[in-house]
Design goal:
Rossmann fold; six-stranded mixed beta sheet; 9 helices; 12 strands; 29% helix; alpha/beta; 267 residues
Length: 267
Amino acid sequence: MAEPILSISGLIKDFGGFRALGGIDLELGTGLLVGLIGPNGCGKSTMMKCICKIEDPTSGSICVDGRDVTAMRPLDAAKLVANVPAEPGPTFGLSVMDMVMLGRYPFVDRIWWENPEDEQMTRKALQTFGIDHLRRKQVSLLSSGERQRAMIAKAYVQEPRLMLVDEPTAHLDMKYKLQVMEYLKSMSKTDMTVMVAEHDISLMARYCDLCIIMKGGRIVAAGDPKEVIGPELIRDVYEVDSRVGLDEDGEIYVLPKKYIEGERGGL
């Protein structure tokens, strides 16, 4: 059997007296688009931050492509794991070309690192994600959809084995939600796995090969979206009554109906 691209064992993360992750065990193979879903505060973002070394785990192990990333320098870990945050943060007047080329930084072997290979790879990524015509434009002037594609392109040129994407469709209209998910789906069919943390359950269920559902810092279900996502799970995890079904194309959908009053003592 091929070695998993991601292997997590006994992952615990505490912030003072608060346990954000309560013992995560997870294995993922290569070539998957994985949806990480759950309510606010369930531990999705914390788990991804531990995988890409933004946060150090309290205990447990995280291996990517058979290598223990918890023991690596962040620069070395960045050659295996790329992180796409929900927002780009300050861009300090960077052009799209410059920001995407920053994805090559883990491979720097000299003081001034731009070389023909880096530029060629960056231009190819810009073309792949349909933003080459924006390469001289400042990132701060991009639309939400353009900015999201630029951040994904930056992660793409890192040539990671595992890409972590946090809420990629949060501020996008329907067209660009679908477009971004199509890009991520196509990327997962290369020699990498893409993990996406998202609140749109129907979108995740449609595009993802595997959905992981979290609650209270733990994984409560994982598997084929059509097999694991149902009204009972939605009620337990989100405290919402819902209708879960298949449309005429056989795609799963989740329709929230009402929140459940009284189970947490009201507002």
